[in-house]
Each structure stands twice: as C-alpha cells, then as structure tokens.
Amino acid sequence: MDADFEELSHDADIITRIKQFRDITLKIEDTIKYATDPAIYEKLSNTDKIEYNLLMSYCLNSMFWMYLRAEGIDPAKHRIKLENDRLKKSMTRAKQINDKKTLMPHINKDAAQRFVRNGLWEIKNKKK
C-alpha cells in the first residue's frame, strides 16, 4: 500500500506540523538514550536512584497516556489511571521519607557524651 501525500502537499501547515513532530520525536529518542545509560545510573546515590526510577515510570506512563489519547481511547477509563495513582502515592511517600531525613534533628555526639558522663554519679566513700 503506497501512501499518497500529494493532497497534503498543498497544505503547508500540515507539512510543517509533521516535520515538527518528527524533530520532537528524535529529541525524545536522544533524551531516552541518555537517560537509560547504565553508567550514569550506577553513579547515583540510593535516594537519587529512587527518584530516577519514579521519574522514568512517570515518563513511561505519560507516553502511554498520550498513545491512548492518539488512538482515541479515554485513558481515564483505562488501567493506566490506577497505575498513575499508585505512582503518585509512591512519589509522595518518597518525598516524605526524604523530608524526614532533612528535617530530623541531629544529635551532637560530644554534648550527648557529656550529659551521660555527668549524669552518672558515683557515691563517694565518706570517711567517718
């Protein structure tokens, strides 16, 4: 089946939009290649790996959401909606855990040792 685009050649707006779509698709492809490089992933801390994995899941779900929309399927009635809700809860939980680490009070070890040392007292033998 040969594609006949002769009728589209008269509409410059459609051709421009198709070219823009192709350029954006190539940029997305380059970004995905960079983002999935295993050498970069291995250098991340555990917290950064969690954020990376959540971001990648979110991106993939968004791409699938757009695919469903392009196919004329309502994504709000698809199982992807449940997956997006689960992912949002995971992102919220990861943020809460990260905030706990930064907002948690830190103990001054030297001061704590002085408190314990001075709090432990010994009864001195009194000479009678």
Automatic annotation (TrEMBL):
Cellular compartments per GO CC: cytoplasm; exosome (RNase complex); nucleolus
Taxonomic source organism: Apis mellifera
Gene: 725049
Protein name per the record: Nuclear nucleic acid-binding protein C1D
Keywords: Cytoplasm, DNA-binding, Nucleus, RNA-binding, rRNA processing
Subunit-structure text: Monomer and homodimer.
A Gene Ontology BP annotation from the UniProt entry: regulation of gene expression
Family, as annotated: Belongs to the C1D family.
Gene Ontology MF terms: DNA binding; RNA binding
Main location: cytoplasm
Compartment annotation: Cytoplasm; Nucleus, Nucleolus; Nucleus
Cross-referenced InterPro entries: Exosome-assoc_fac/DNA_repair, Sas10/Utp3/C1D
Domain of life of the native organism: Eukaryota
